[in-house]
Amino acid sequence: MKLPAPIWPKEHGLWAWVLVPLIVGAGAARGEAGNFWFVLAAVMFWFMALTPARMVYKNFKKKIKANRAAWTWSLIYACVGSVAAALSVWFDFRIAAFYVVFAPAFYLGVLAAHAGFQKSLPFEFGGIAYLSLLSLLGAFSVAGEIQKAHFAVLGFVLIFLLDRSIQTRIVARTMGGKGNFSEESLKTVCRMNIFLSFASLAAVSAVLTVF
Q1: Which residues of 154-176 are buried (b: 16+ CB within 10 A; e: fewer)?
Q2: How far apart are CA 207 and CA 160, in angstroms?
Q3: What are phi and psi of 95, to 5 degrees?
Q4: φ, ψ for residue 98 (rounded to 5)?
Q5: Which of 15, 69, 102, 170 is 20 to 30 Å from 164 by CA-CA measure?
């Protein structure tokens, strides 16, 4: 039986929301815990399982015949992710607490796609704040503990993701659709995004001051 073509996550921005906090948190940490690669594999493969799982859930709710490719790849990704997660817990059982915290993210991601609120403002910004905590998981996987400096990195990651998301949302809302926007509206968008960039710098300075 031929294996169906792989199913990949469609939302390009979601890759950044998931992987940037984890990788930046790990890169900013110092230690010899040696658990990062198992943690990275666990997070990445469970993230990849999200899109086919959404398709399976949608078909189930609509009582449509199951998509073979969606079932196959959701199981493959989930199995690989689960093995990686189990290995990371075997090396340090404390990391299981992080998985308990982040497990609802998968369910919420599947539910949001079916219910249609995945593009809503509260879900988007709430999701960014939630997934930014992955920087602490990345740091713990390297250092074997959470240090004060790791919370500063969390602050930087959150500021960066919120800044990029807000600016992109403003541009998309103005220039999307049929393109019926004026020169003045583009100037307004430009001014707003420049202001947000300076606000982000101010927020970074505040984090540096606190930590």
Answers
A1: bbbbbbbbbbbbbbeebeeeeee
A2: 12
A3: -70, -15
A4: -65, -40
A5: 102
76-117 pLDDT tens trace: 999 999 999 999 999 999 999 999 999 998 888 888 776 767
By the 10 Å C-beta count (0-12 exposed, 13-18 middle, 19+ buried), 25 is classed as: buried
How many CB atoms within 10 Å of residue 22? Answer: 26
**Sign for the pseudo-dihedral over CA of 178, 119, 11, 193:** positive
**Exposed/middle/buried for residue 39 (C-beta within 10 Å: 0-12, 13-18, 19+):** buried
DSSP 30: -
Gyration radius from the chain CA atoms = 19
Say how many C-beta atoms besides its own lie within 10 A of residue 206's C-beta: 12
The two tokens of residue 185 are: 């509206």
Question: Is 80 exceeded by the pLDDT of residue 174?
Answer: no
Which letter does DSSP use for residue 138 in this model?
H
Report the alpha-carbon distance of residue 170 to residue 186 in Å, rounded.
Answer: 10
Residue 51 has a CB neighbour count (10 Å cut-off) of 21
The answer to whether 84 and 38 are in contact (CB under 8 A) is yes
State the Cα–Cα distance between residues 138 and 43, nearest whole angstrom.
10
